Amino acid sequence: MHTPLFDWLKTRSCGVLMHPTSLPGDFGTGDIGQSAHRFLDWMTACGLKYWQVLPLGPTGFGDSPYQAYSSHALNPLLLAWEEFFYCGYLTPEDLRPLMRSDPDKVDFDYLKPIHTSICAKVVKKGLQDPAHERPFRSFLKKHSHWVEAWSLFTTFKKVSDNKPWYEWRKEWRDYETASQIKLPAALLQTKKEAAFLQYLLFTQWNRLREEASHKGIRIIGDIPIYVAPDSVDVWRNPEVFRLGKDLRPSCYAGVPPDYFNSEGQFWGNPIYDWKHLSETGFAWWMDRIRHSLSLFDTVRLDHFRAMEAFWCIPKKAKSAKEGKWETGPGLAFFEKLKSEIPDACMILEDLGLITPEVTGLRDQSGFPGLAVLQFAFGGGSDNFYLPHNIVPNSVVYTGTHDNDTSLGWYRSSGHAAQDHMRRYLRVDGATAPWDLIRAAWSSVARLCIVPLQDFLSLGTEARFNTPGTATGNWRWRCHEHHLHHFQNESASYLRELSNLYGRS
């Protein structure tokens, strides 16, 4: 019996899951400015101590946070405009087009070109402002391990009509060669602007993080298990991935048929060369985790089961069903993590097809896994998501960003699951989201996290993502009046639940 490597989740607490783009505001998408700071105030009023977000990287096709151009950079769509308006960088005319966007959903196609234009104006003004000179230099020095490659990647992508890196000019496709090229003045300026935009984003994020810490709120980030094929990560580190001579993946990531999709899922991400990573002491992964833990208090490792065994889909496969299981890095990865980052705080997303080997690796690591109450009902008493089977070292959710809202789930789950839930929880089902919230709060799981949509008792119209669909996801936004109404009508009850069940 191994002694668990890590043991960080020791006290009972509670929190909320909401991506910053879902925050209310006037400019087409939520951001990390004033509305995010007001959200921290709302959390304080409700007695919530953890704010879980999805990956914050710059998104590409499909707008998925799990298909980012970088595992280190922040998404420019998160930049908040208020401070640049107040300091004179922007005028009301600059922002007016954003205020015509849909207040209920993020319209990425409408937003991105306008946002890019406003970003360019802010960056140009900022680079001319002497107040930024010293902190910008400090930022470049502190983040030199990634920002140089990111700004170069962004520059080449911009002048290549946004083509993927493996379709750029031949001399740019190899990072080591490209980084030695003497760039013309125009490209050097573009590169500097890309770095400065990240400086502005990190400044705003650090301000938000400091405010959260001051209020006793911990932020949970998210590390996608895989990276996008068209990303600075693959461009700069091709040896880390299983690529063909054409620089495209020689095989692809995905999952076999499961709860979410009877056909399995083809994700299209490159698979890691775990043999190479092992020989280098998992250096690339250690850097990635270290960087994430500098941005967040805790991080959720997405699709943890791939660390034990992962689904590998051949390049010429016609569907995800044609994949096969291959062995992941296993305990050696977490032993290295313990030696490199001994105080790492992680949550392991252990959903999907979970075997005793996956559960054993999770328990050996000592990191908490997940329990999702929407998965608990409709079967037998041995379902390990039922509250009586949950273990203390775990994080319980009513549902995740990949599920329907709890109200939507209950309405569509069928008679057997509805009846099981009502009998198990001794409720009539009239307020299904709150029935699940109370079950989460009363469970032995030390941490419970609830999507904001469930606190607000919203239906399927507020679903954030449907796995296996390429478009129409990640768009939901809440309204300021939703938060005000909840604070006035339900916050005291939520605090009472926390006091009752030791989560205050």
Structure described in brief:
By secondary structure, this protein is an alpha/beta fold. The protein contains 20 helices and twelve strands.
Strand content: 5-15%
For the termini, the CA-CA separation is 34 Å
Q: Which parts are unreliable, with pLDDT below 50 for 5 consecutive residues or more?
A: none
Radius of gyration: 23 Å
Q: Sheet bearing the most strands, described? A: 8 strands, parallel
| Number of alpha- plus pi-helical segments | 20
- Oligomeric composition of the shown chains: single chain
Lateral arrangement of strands in the main beta sheet: 9-6-3-2-1-12-11-10
- Portion of residues within helices: 40-55%
Class from helix and strand fractions: alpha/beta
Number of strands: 12
Mean pLDDT: 96
Shape: globular
What report would you give on this structure?
The chain is of the alpha/beta class and 504 residues long. It is built from 20 helices and twelve strands. The strands form two sheets. It has an eight-stranded parallel beta sheet with strand order 9-6-3-2-1-12-11-10. Helix 5 crosses helix 6 and helix 6 crosses helix 9 (185-214). The longest helix has 30 residues, at 185-214. It is globular.
